């Protein structure tokens, strides 16, 4: 019979005192989480879009993605009705574009934004690392947000560059 190895943990690292869960605690914790930066677009009576760091791949078959959007967002009324949306993965050369789509009241599709009408009439941004046009399949209530689940119908993964990241309240690039 062989003795089993001692699986007791070593010294416990010092951790801070736990705080009661709150919106501020959640924001503070997720500032430590580096996330890729995407812009989600849609078209109703006008093109809309917003910067998202909550983009997730949900399934490969069928190809599903999800993201969260606040119901107080200026984009929400259009997204709430849109049948199709665009998902754009931004490159580290697109910090200003990310900031424009994150800024409340900004003219997101104004003179500084290069875009064209893509499949299903969705605004597709130029110069991104990759993009998808997706058909919305669900909008799930989640507090003051909705989780949108959408199935990819078209896209292009072949843009040049490195991804833009969001960490600790700032846009960042990958470092080697």
Instruction: State the CATH superfamily name.
Output: Electron Transport, Fmn-binding Protein, Chain A
The tally of helices reads: 3
Q: Report the uncertain regions.
A: none
Q: What general outline do the C-alpha atoms trace?
A: globular
- Can you tell me the CATH architecture? Roll
- Protein structure class: mainly beta
Count of all domains: 1
Strand order of the largest sheet: 3-2-6-9-10-5-4
CATH topology: Pnp Oxidase, Chain A
Order of helices and strands: HEEEEEHEHEEEEEE
N/C terminus separation:
48 Å
Question: Helical amount among residues, as a percent range?
Answer: 10-25%
Computed over alpha carbons, the radius of gyration is 19 Å
| Beta-strand content estimate | 35-45%
What is the makeup of the main sheet?
7 strands, antiparallel
Q: Count of DSSP E strands?
A: 12
Overall pLDDT score: 92
CATH class: Mainly Beta
Short description:
The chain is mainly beta and 176 residues long. It has helices spanning 23-31, 76-79, 95-102; strands at residues 35-36, 38-43, 47-52, 56-60, 63-70, 84-89, 115-117, 123-125, 130-142, 145-156, 164-167, 170-173.
Folded structure, characterized:
With 176 residues, this protein is mainly beta. It is 12% helix and 41% strand. It is built from three helices and twelve strands; from the N terminus they run αβββββαβαββββββ. The chain has helices spanning 23-31, 76-79, 95-102, and strands at 35-36, 38-43, 47-52, 56-60, 63-70, 84-89, 115-117, 123-125, 130-142, 145-156, 164-167, 170-173. The strands form three sheets. Strands 3-2-6-9-10-5-4 form a seven-stranded antiparallel sheet. A three-stranded antiparallel sheet has the order 1-11-12, with no helix packed on it. Strands 7-8 form a two-stranded antiparallel sheet. The model has no long low-confidence stretch (mean pLDDT 92). Keywords: Oxidoreductase.
